[in-house]
Amino acid sequence: MVACVVPICCAAADREPLSIMRVSVCINSIRSMLLTMPPLIRHAYNCFTTYPATTRRHIAEQYASTRQHNGEIYMSIISNTESESVAQPTLSGLMTLILAIGAGFSVASIYYVQPILPQIGHDLQLSLDGMGLVPTLTQIGYALGILLLLPLGDRYDRRKIIAVKSAALTAMLWLCSQVTGPTALWLSSLLLGMAATLAQDIVPVAAILAPAGKQGKNVGTVMTDLLIGILLSRTVSGVVGEYIGWRAMYQLAALSIAVIGIALWRILPAFAQHSALSYPGLLRSMLQLWRSYPALRRAALAQGLLSVGFSAFWSTLAVMLEQHYQLGSAVAGTFGLAGAAGALAAPLSGSLSDRFGAAKVTQLGAALSAISFAALFLLPTLPLHGQLALIALSAVGFDLGLQSALVSHQTLVYSLNAQARGRLNALLFTGVFIGMASGSALGAKAMSIAGWPGVTLLATLASVVCLIVRLRSEKTSA
């Protein structure tokens, strides 16, 4: 019946391949031209080459940083003893599609476990608390991976990082399918969560390879598949677990990540190193970035608030459907399809961000989420079928609002410092997952105290506060 209310239509977004312009500086070429240069310029060059390699790198990075405008890097200098440019390939439609699929399947890996927990508990003889540790440790691993591993994207070649994480995620998924005891399952779930941050390494690639003015559209396409992976993973896992078994679900997931990892290795170029900081230095620099950019703090806070409502709704929906409508988890999974319909429309938000500004789209996304959640207060006034239809339509609305705001917040954050996108993304998504965890805890508490109206009130208030944050941000910027 939900499918009748919310038809889902998949359409591919236009992708116009353009290239990123870069100015190439090569010391070998300069050296060959020295004979024709005035003595003063030759003397300046000789002085520069006598500096230590670290000093030359610092000078080059300082010069490159002055050539940034609206997130576009006009110069990329990478070397220890000499400089050379790396020509980036055109971001083709096929490349964007593979990036989007990779992000979706990667993030889905941490949600497959939720509908098959009862089967795992029965097979491994786990208590209720033991079963609950599996998704908890997976989410903890994901948060740790964001904080500790994501910054490496600014220090090392992203192509190699994606390859290593793909292999690690494949191994952890396969290990989960082979465990025979709780300890091995808990440990592999923690490591699985850390490796699943592969999705967050893929998203910045779409921004890096996109031409100026098109970052929002391409990030929106990739982020749409990421959210769809979150929403549909429960439905897919429930069906596979019921008919084939929970171990088969993990094995199929491992196979999908292996195939995607190989595809990404073949199509992605090598990426320039944007920072010479050591790993501890990268972690310390994250605190400096957080202090330096008020726009980053506002984006993390606003998106975290939207995530509170999102998580509160989805973490309590199945319980509410069972208590009020005597409907099982399979029906709850179909509402995930309704949410995916909203996510499919989100690439439009990327294009709107490029045209009207990301700040405006974040306000529209927060307002749409607040209206969608508030509409659930009308449930008692409707007949049974109308109530289920309203829940589905609300899921479409707030998922579209959340996804639109997320794409726009990422566009804002990526424009702050092109050489620190990995660390900026890590800080943004730390706020997102703090909101997710808080929404699950607060949603369960609200459900136990005030029932579904309490959850609705929590989600609505969180979205309204997010809208206030974005409106105040615009006034502050002005």
From TrEMBL:
InterPro entries: MFS, MFS_dom, MFS_trans_sf. Keywords: Cell membrane, Membrane, Transmembrane, Transmembrane helix. This is MFS transporter. Residues 95-477 form the Major facilitator superfamily (MFS) profile domain. PANTHER family: MAJOR FACILITATOR SUPERFAMILY (MFS) PROFILE DOMAIN-CONTAINING PROTEIN, TRANSPORTER SCO4007-RELATED. Gene3D superfamilies: MFS general substrate transporter like domains. The keyword Cell membrane applies. Pfam families: MFS_1 (PF07690). The lineage of its organism: Bacteria, Pseudomonadati, Pseudomonadota, Gammaproteobacteria, Enterobacterales. It comes from the Bacteria. The chain crosses the membrane at residues 94-113, 133-150, 162-180, 250-268, 300-321, 327-349, 361-382, 388-412, 424-443, 449-469.
